[in-house]
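Customer ticket, subject: "Can you confirm the structure for Neuromedin U receptor 1?"

Message body: Hello, I'm evaluating your service for our small team and ran a test protein. I'd like someone to confirm that this is what the system normally returns, since I don't have a reference to compare against.
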Amino acid sequence: VSHPSCTFLKLLQSRHGTLGCFSEQCSPCPVYNRIDMDNTCLTEEGYLEKYLGPRRSSVFLPVCLVYLLIFLIGVVGNVLTCTVIARNKVMWTPTNYYLFSLAVSDLLVLLLGMPLELYELWQNYPFLLGKGGCYFKTFLFEMVCLASILNVTALSIERYIAVVHPLRAKYVVTRTHAKRVILTVWGISVLCAVPNTSLHGIITLQIHSAGPAGNVNLEISDSAICTLVKPRWIYNLTIQLTTFVFFLLPMVTISVLYMLIGLQLKREKMRQSLEAKSGFGNDSFCNIRTQQQKARRRQVTKMLFVLVVVFGICWAPFHTDRLMWSFISDWTDSHHKIFEYVHIISGVFFYLSSAVNPILYNLMSTRFREMFKEVMCHRYSDFLPQSKSTTAG
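Agent reply: Thanks for trying us out. I re-ran your input and got the following:
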């Protein structure tokens, strides 16, 4: 007997590793149990397509083109960000340490995560990397997801202390403290990525056939998939807790922090305008230097505020995707159709979040823009003599 709602089993296996029945009507689900071969006319490939869907995603080509564009922009931008921060001592600030950590997280997603997802869109099954590869894939996506939001949260707290409590910032907002926080962030991300990773593994379809020799269970090796192997309710609970603790709660906290930062900057601007009208201390060198520092602090804060807003927009579809999967138990055809679009959109925005940050730095930070130009021009000037000497020889 065909299970129509069980044929939608392809898209949801990359960024959060799950794959399985979408409806109780699928019970017993062929992924977790044996297939009763009622229709012996079907070939092995026919059974695979019947229960696992087509091998190649129908949206592979357009998604691949979009992903490759994001990949090129993201890798070049994040490598430039890391190079600029690592090579220039003037960029060794606590804020830039967090941006460096965020760039490393983005590079991990682009260099390791995106190729895995593109491969699975090209060939949904079999999963060729084995159990270790399945664990690695699930762990990687979960870890960078957690590390990104924790880096952004730590960065926002650092900005809040620097702007609202400048006296305390001298002792708290330091490079040593930033390094400790970043190590803690990655440590927490590694530990908290383990539960979801442990819920996954490799499953293959089995054919149950009866013959003269008795009942025989044949495993279809080409059906191997990296999927959820533990009870569904544990996964649902894990996803819901993760979304609350590592997305909703941090985003609310960050919103409150930037609201307080905005109020503080507004008060400073009003105070500055009053001092300008009164003419008090306008010509003093210390006052001019202080005003320049405040202007630069406002520029950095605005850039980071935009970064947080873009981060929230890019990651919201990803968590919507996960929550939709964990909350809906009775899947209909309309649910499947909506989910397909949500999953594709969440994937594009997920990777876009790893590519957009360097663009924001270039647009909103004068110092980053100058450093980017310096690094790129330096590399270009290093390349020119080499190419000339080659043609001359």
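A couple of notes from the result: Strands lie at 34-36, 200-203, 206-211, 214-219, 225-228. Residues 300 and 365 are 7 Å apart (CA to CA). Feel free to reply with more questions.
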